[in-house]
Automatic annotation (TrEMBL):
Disulfide bond listed as a keyword: yes
Keyword Repeat applies: yes
Keywords carried by this UniProt record: Disulfide bond, Leucine-rich repeat, Membrane, Repeat, Signal, Transmembrane, Transmembrane helix
Region forming the signal peptide: 1-40
Annotated Gene Ontology cellular component terms: membrane
Protein name, as recorded: Ig-like domain-containing protein
Ranges for domain Ig-like: 288-373
PROSITE patterns: IG_LIKE (PS50835), LRR (PS51450)
């Protein structure tokens, strides 16, 4: 850098005199460059590339000071760190999103250990010596999405140890010493709402809460890895693994041979004998009126069930309970000894898809359904599905037919009363209508016949005459006599048919709506 190579600068003097400021200008430039160099200095044992700093494999026992605040990825793997305190950085690292601390000797995480980096999204603590987790170690990491803890000595996850990780999606706990399934990750106050991947492989878990796991959503179950554990192979676990295989979950498809309860092993007496085959016929769609009882046989199982068999029914709805042959059961839902689900006093809330989880073994057919759909009441989804097996459509057809019959009957009666011609004549004349008939006369005087009372000015009169010509108007005679006998025409009860039809119409209207 040569000062003489610079062109003559413009120099301004407050006193109005022009001075040579070459030395002053060079000094200012030197100070600015020095400041930039100091600010962007990379820690001595590390390698820096833009906003990435790697201090991996440097045998560091402490964090180097003066970490730059612009760093977004920091790698301290393969070192000799033994603990992580809350003051490991002397300045906030607000842009840090990835922190790698794998393959160290960390045995302790201080409370609020990650306070300097509140925006972490990926934290790798794998292959360390952690045996327990402080309940407040991960406090403040609300944006953390991936947490790697595999290859440690963790024997239990303390309740609340992961509390506050509301954005955590993937948790790796494989290769530890866990003996119990950490159900608190999915239930209770410390539940992780977005967790969809949980690696528990290569631990010491012997029993898993099958009924509780089945109650999780499918996107949560599909990410639980249990291979490499000394699992006790019982009917409940076998049923869950069969269910996972049918749903094509990756844990069972990718590590089928690493489960001690592999589906390819010998037959377990968890259902009926394999040669008995499928028992009975099961519908896929059911409809039940609200308040009635409904029985749902478990599809595809062989009967009778063997001792120790496990049958679970997954009820519809998010967070709905899973019912088994034993344990707590809902007030109006009960699993019978033969695996049938009994719904007592069905309500519209019971509508949905029910899944029967059971061991079917060699009798299971690949295309056989394990789900049944229930519609309680007049559910609009019933029409979309093509109708249930019950007679909902028959009820509608019967009511519609009744209404149509009533309307046709009224029309025929009105046609007979008002449009059928009948000639007025003398009693006993050839043109008269014998018996009891209805006359339509244009003039009242034409109806003045002997032994007949006619009200003057009336155009319609009921005539009671002697049947001198029974052979005439025989068809009308029968019809009118029948009407008179039923009290429709003569007794003034012609509104009876209308009332009956109105009631039928109202019943149809109520049924449809």
């Amino acid at each position: 850098f040569s000062i003489r190579s610079l062109p003559p600068p413009l120099c301004i003097s407050i006193s109005g005199h022009v001075h040579d400021f070459r030395v002053t200008l060079a000094f200012l430039l030197f100070m600015c460059l020095s400041r930039m160099i100091v600010t962007a200095t990379c820690p001595l044992p590390c390698v820096c590339a833009s906003d990435i700093i790697s201090c991996s494999g440097r045998n560091l026992s402490t964090m180097p000071p003066d970490l730059p605040s612009y760093v977004t990825r920091l790698d301290f793997g393969h070192n000799a760190l033994s603990a992580l305190l809350s003051d490991w950085s002397d300045r906030p690292l607000d842009r840090l999103t990835v922190l790698v601390l794998s393959r160290n000797s960390i045995t302790h995480l201080a409370p609020n250990a990650f306070a300097p980096s509140p925006h972490l999204r990926h934290l790798d603590l794998s292959s360390n010596w952690l045996s327990s987790l402080n309940t407040s170690a991960f406090r403040g990491l609300e944006e953390l999405e991936v947490l790697l803890l595999f290859g440690n000595l963790i024997c239990q996850t303390m309740t609340g140890g992961f509390q506050g990780l509301s954005s955590l999606e993937r948790l790796y706990l494989g290769g530890n010493r866990l003996a119990d399934f950490p159900l608190e990750l999915y239930q209770g106050d410390g539940a992780l709402p977005r967790l969809h991947f949980l690696d528990l492989s290569m631990n010491m878990v012997r029993h898993v809460p099958v009924q509780s796991i089945l109650s999780l959503a499918a996107w949560q179950q599909g990410g639980i890895y249990l291979h490499g554990n000394p699992l006790v192979c019982d009917c409940a676990l076998r049923a869950m693994l069969e269910y996972w295989e049918r749903r094509e979950f990756r844990p069972i498809l990718d590590y089928r041979e690493e489960y001690p309860c592999s589906l390819g092993q010998e037959w377990l007496n968890c259902s009926g004998s394999p040669w008995e085959g499928f028992h009975g016929t099961v519908q896929e769609v059911y409809q039940v009126e609200p308040g009635n009882w409904l029985m749902l046989p478990c599809p595809g199982i062989s009967l009778p069930l063997q001792k120790g068999a496990a049958v679970f029914w997954v009820t519809p709805g998010q967070g709905s309970p899973v019912l088994g042959l034993t344990g707590d059961q809902n007030a109006h839902l009960r699993v019978l000894a033969n695996g049938t689900l009994e719904i007592q006093g069905a309500s519209p809330e019971d509508s949905g898809t029910y899944t029967c989880v059971a061991v079917r073994g060699q009798t299971r057919r690949p295309n056989q359904t394990i789900e049944v759909t229930v519609y309680a009441g007049n559910d609009s989804r019933l029409a979309e599905s093509g109708g249930a097996r019950s007679g909902g459509g028959e009820h509608f057809n019967t009511a519609f037919t009744t209404l149509a019959s009533c309307v046709v009957s009224i029309i025929l009666v009105l046609l007979y009363l008002y449009l059928t011609p009948c000639r007025c004549g003398r009693a006993g004349g050839e043109g008269g209508c014998g018996g009891k008939a209805m006359l339509f006369c244009a003039d009242p005087r034409e109806a003045e016949l002997a032994d007949r009372r006619v009200t003057g000015g009336k155009r319609v009169a009921f005539l009671e005459t002697v049947d001198k010509y029974p052979q005439r108007c025989s068809a009308k005679q029968s019809a009118v006599d029948t009407a008179a006998t039923e009290g429709i025409l003569k007794n003034g009860n012609s509104y009876s048919i209308f009332s009956v039809c109105l009631c039928a119409f109202l019943c149809l209207f109520v049924y449809i709506n």
